[in-house]
Amino acid sequence: DSIRSSVDNVEIIEYAGAFGASTLFLILPALMAWQCRYGDDVRPLTVRPMVPFGKIVLGSLYKAAGTLIVEQGLEKLGVFEFIQQILLRTGQ
User: Fold this and answer.
1) 73 vs 35, 37, 62, 81, CA distance in Å?
2) Tens digits of residue pLDDT in 33-75
3) CA distance readout (Å), 89 to 34, 71, 74, 77, 83
């Protein structure tokens, strides 16, 4: 029984790591930059933005982050394996 619970704990840590890292390193920096540039409390920037092109680049970061998070979720749920098995069955 303890082996089963340790396996469950490892799976939980994998899920938390995958989605937590994506959120921490992809969504939060873009969100902070957006809030600093375009939020309600807009102040003149004291330094020039490190990422040029404003909303286009920040929107692209959101799109990339969302795509990666959805892809990780589908992989963890086994959707890709399921589709691969269906394609292999129809190909025979």
Assistant:
1) 27, 31, 16, 13
2) 888 888 787 677 777 777 678 788 888 888 988 898 888 888 8
3) 47, 23, 21, 20, 10
> What are the structure tokens assigned to 42, written together?
């807009």
Q: Counting every residue, how long is the chain? A: 92
The two tokens of residue 37 are 């540039």
SS3 assignment for the chain: CHHHHHHHHHHHHHHHHHHHHHHHHHHHHHHHHHHHHHCCCCCCCCCCCCCCCCHHHHHHHHHHHHHHHHHHHHHHHCHHHHHHHHHHHHHC
